Amino acid sequence: MVKHIQPIPANLTDRLSAMAWLEPWYCRLAEGAEFGAGFERELRREVAPGHLLFDVRNDVRAIAGRVDCDDALFWLGEQDGRFAVVHLTWSAKAEPADWPSTWIVKSLDDFADAMAALHLELSRN
Question: What is the pTM of this model?
């Protein structure tokens, strides 16, 4: 049973809305709660004991995604405060402990730097 999903704090929502989103990333908050709920449900299905998100899987909130693949950016909740880029498999079942592939991001600023580097790399091709 999933506990009550905590809302994304207003200050974080404001920062995400004001952020310059670069392709292939886009903010998904405008798509509404149902979008995020689907990604969050799938993450909970896929993350098994031993995965680095297992202990926070019920706290995550989907906030952004990529248009070119199944990567999504999740906020790990107020107790953790970090973010994670997760490549969901969409298998609807628990995966081995090293899947779905996950990159922990300490801050939105770190994510913005990585997003800019990816955008630049893709624009060169």
Answer: 0.89
